[in-house]
Design goal:
This protein is largely without helices or strands and 304 residues long. It is rod-shaped, with a radius of gyration of 46 Å.
Length: 304
Amino acid sequence: MKYKKISMVIITVIFMTGCRSYDKKGFNASTKRNWHSMGYTDIGGYDISGYSDNGYDRGGYDRYGYDTDNYDKDGFNDYGYNRDGYNRNGYKKNGWNDEGWNKEGINRDTMTKYDKYGWSRDYINEKTKILYDEYGWSYFGINQITKTKYDREGFTIGGINKDTGTNYNKDGWSKYGINEVTKATYDTGGYNHEGYTIDGYAEDGYSAEGYNRQGYNKNGYDEEGYNRKGYNKNGYSREGHKEEKNVKNEYKGGYDEKGYNRLGYNREGYGVDGYNSEGYDKGGYNREGLDREGFNREKEYVGE
């Protein structure tokens, strides 16, 4: 009985020692045999290195990392091309990528460094040599000033307004100055998107430069700095003569002794030349002899 117990202990020790000599997959590092199959492969047919008799692992790849179709885990063959025919940089065997560029940055259509729209592979504009074209837009439609897809007027490169989602803003004007109602550059009142008529005057009668039809600014001076009487703000004429003023009576009640205010208009609103601030005389005709509707003094329509 005593010897029987000793034998059992020895067998158990040998058994445990034998188990510890096998890895978690059941292979013995020395003999390369598998505990479960007692052969050189496991019950799945893979050896201690994880490869089957035909040389592929469980993922289907050989010792060099290629599958049965000769493609690696990233999908590229040993020539460096994927199943669609592109290399890792996106170029086909013919040297061009899908955007029509080769690795030297030459465009297939133009055979230059710029495509037919004037952009390089790196999105540099041909004319400006920067990331924005001459109108301030990038290849991706980003505005140079706002750094968004909208310009300062709220339009995209394609002319869509961010507030309305249409080609016109809330005031009815497009990116290109076309009126939504008239489909022309002037609205029904005859003003463009900047607020000026076809002859260049705003609703208050002054041009963008600040002069009315008579050539005077809101302070009553022309471009050379002289008022209707021919004197500058210092009181001198073009000939250098000092203006003689009757200080006591000048502009009494807003008008001088001749009946004109500081802007050179009389109480009826007409200047010494007979025209009002809008450029029309008492008969309703401008200096060209046309009325507001475009008829001359002979009642013949000439046009505005």
